[in-house]
């Protein structure tokens, strides 16, 4: 099979996966997470339920796909950042850039959207889908940048663990913020705070 034909097929698969994930998110925001089924998602995306099952094991996996795809883009961006750039500066750019490219930094979410996101993140199926292999991927890329070993050295796994804590703490703060705030603002604050050694917060 010619390379261009193979590339076209892979792009079509990627487009279908994105369409299903977007349909799942739209329906969850419209109806609430509990009221969305595979059939609904497939119908909204204009494909069969069988096609849905070829791409995702369930609605939770479809819903978190966009975040997993952003993490993959973040890893690629981190690999391409200048080698002499401070590590946490590179990490901040790598984490924030995909979110901004997807429009996540344009406006804070509505309260009803945050309620749905909280429901999604509370589901065990979501936590399983989000955690699958991501820690090891970050440790591997950080090891590449720092000349360390992702298996035998503490440093890359420690940085990856701190980054995981950043994701978790900013997400929890984001979903409970009143009034709502931008996730990109929180991520910048968290990463810059870690880079500075987590100084005590200023008090009045």
Characterise the protein shown here:
There is one protein chain. This protein is an all-alpha fold. The chain has two domains: 1-56, Homeodomain-like (Arc Repressor Mutant, subunit A); 60-195, Orthogonal Bundle (Tetracycline Repressor, domain 2), CATH 1.10.357.10. Helix content is 74%, strand content 0%. The protein is built from ten helices and no strands. The termini are far apart. The mean pLDDT is 91.
Query: For the report, how would you describe the main beta sheet?
Result: none
CATH superfamily of the largest domain: Tetracycline Repressor, domain 2
What form results from the Cα inertia axes?
A: globular
Number of strands: 0
Q: How much β-strand is present in the residues? A: under 5%
Written as H for each helix and E for each strand, in order along the chain, the element string is HHHHHHHHHH
Radius of gyration: 19 Å
Q: Please, how many helices?
A: 10
- The residue-averaged pLDDT reads 91
Question: How much helicity do the residues have?
Answer: over 70%
Features:
Tetracycline Repressor, domain 2, 204 residues, 74% helix, Arc Repressor Mutant, subunit A, mainly alpha, 10 helices
Show the helix and strand layout.
Layout: H1 3-31, H2 38-45, H3 49-55, H4 59-80, H5 87-101, H6 111-122, H7 124-131, H8 134-146, H9 154-176, H10 183-195
Helix pairs in contact: 1-2, 1-4, 2-3, 4-5, 4-7, 4-8, 5-10, 6-9, 8-9, 9-10
Put the structure in a nutshell.
This protein is mainly α. It has ten helices and no strands.
